[in-house]
Amino acid sequence: xxxxxxxxxxxxxxxxxxxxxxxxxxxxxxxxxxxxxxxxxxxxxxxxxxxxxxxxxxxxxxxxxxxxxxxxxxxxxxxxxxxxxxxxxxxxxxxxxxxxxxxxxxxxxxxxxxxxxxxxxxxxxxxxxxxxxxx
Length: 135
Fold this sequence. Notes:
Layout: E1 17-21, E2 28-31, E3 36-42, E4 50-64, E5 68-74, E6 81-87, E7 93-99, E8 104-109, E9 115-122, E10 125-132
Antiparallel strand pairs: 1-2, 2-3, 3-4, 4-5, 5-6, 6-7, 8-9, 9-10
């Protein structure tokens, strides 16, 4: 929807879920559906739509900083969850943190990329986890 008002305009061609915006506003990162699916990127006008993060990533559990796209991923071998980063400078994806639990409620990063926050569920509820030195 235009910031100045007016009618909403669809910019995705095949739907979208859990949008993230790059720090410079030049890219939109999203999944096509709920669950663990590849992350795509496109320009705000709908152009240059392509898969940028092919690993199955949890749609709401992604964070964008000026340097990277961070995502919670699921693998088939233990540990079955990890945090990975797509580094914008070189386009490479690196595994930053292996997890032995399934985080819920997504993840958050501080703008300086020093801290990653995620939740760890247990029988009594959830605990907020602060992960230091994850890079």
